[in-house]
Sequence to fold (476 residues):
Amino acid sequence: MFDPDIAPSGTLLGLLQRGRGDGTLHALAAPRAEALAALNASVLRDPRRDWQVENRSLYYARLYMQLDGGLEEIERHLFHAEDLTDHSEERTGLALAVLGHLASYGRDAALLLLRSYAAVGSNWRWALDELALRDDDAGLASLAPAVLARFPQTPQGDAELATAVRDAFEPRPWRLWAEDPRYGERVRAAQEQGSFDRWQRQLRPSGPRPGWSVTEILDWAQKGLELHPEEWRQVPAARCLAAVAGPEDRPELLRAAAGGPDAARAAALRHLAERGDPDALDLIETAVADPFSSEALTDAALASFARMREAVAVERARLWARRTDRLGSAAAAMLARRGDKGDAGPVLAALRRIVRTEGPDAEGLWELVDGAGRLGVACAAPVLRHIYRETASSHLRGRAAGALACTDPGFAAGFAVECLWDCEETTRELAARHAATGDDRVVEQLRRLAADPAEEAEVQTAVRSRFGPDNDASAV
Fold:
């Protein structure tokens, strides 16, 4: 996760960076040079808050096709001297994914760029994965010398090759090269070594062993934090406690949850919460309210509360939801997930408070947005529309769209229309089910989505559902 530099939502660049459907519509109406400049800026400087889960590549590739955009800027970005020093995937990953989609649309220049970058670029693994899905056997075979030359025929080079083969997201190129008599022996040896490495790791687990006691598991959780400050083991430790702890261990777990070292305390809290222990809620409140609790311990305590399924947790949430601290926000989130219509007020109050104090990208908004839709909080529509417009997260925007579909009577003729061009497939699917077809653009876009081979099956199914089981979008 990182915070990219996002332009205001009212600008063309800001719309494209967010992946909003209006970005495509405004780009097609803008002067072509201006639209291409904004598009290139979005692709070359990844605007996603979480680049590993948010979608942009198909959205940008479609716009390149519609604008008949050249790939010179992408080429300069990929082969810039910075590629020799900055090996992070997020620098080039989005551009490579866009090229992959363009190759699927028949842009030969995109395919050639991917091949060239796979041969010499630092993020060659990503480029090779894109080619594995789209290139032919001859094209992949031509890359074998350049890729294998990255690994010297030394013990260290062979070990690195085995790791690359083992961790490849798309195994097709390696399987193809393993059948080539020129490279097959070395590639097959790397494949076998990778399988052997996995087997060895399974034989030498570093975690708890059968027979460990509650004390040993809690010590193991705490030791992980002491050795690696960023490593919190409360989740696996709680799973182990579930298999080991009995009624006789409850006093020890209560002591650890009340005042043990942070990691052990977090593990004990999670275990007690998952078991629905009657003291878990008080212990969680103590951990969160303690001004001396670390932020990580507070996070762990709130996560433990969120996993509770008992009715008593919902009742306690109704009490805590009056608070304006993190515990109050967590309580409102539980009411959003599991509350009833009578809990609409606290959920709406928390939603408004977090947007006002933390902005439209606050992490605490996700469940509250979903809850506003689930509970049908009609008066939440204005704040939901604000989140939809302003958030930089395409996932959160999609959730806001889903909530608006339940709370805003104008959604079908409003935001649902632009959602047909959204970067997220789930948002396009929602729009395909709700967008009012009185607008000619809606019908035309539904036809495009139904005919586009790159579109997800769920979206195309939603499109066809609009026209009945015996019709398809081409008949509209």
In short: The chain has 29 helices and no strands. The radius of gyration is 26 Å. The CA atoms of residues 93 and 126 lie 7 Å apart.
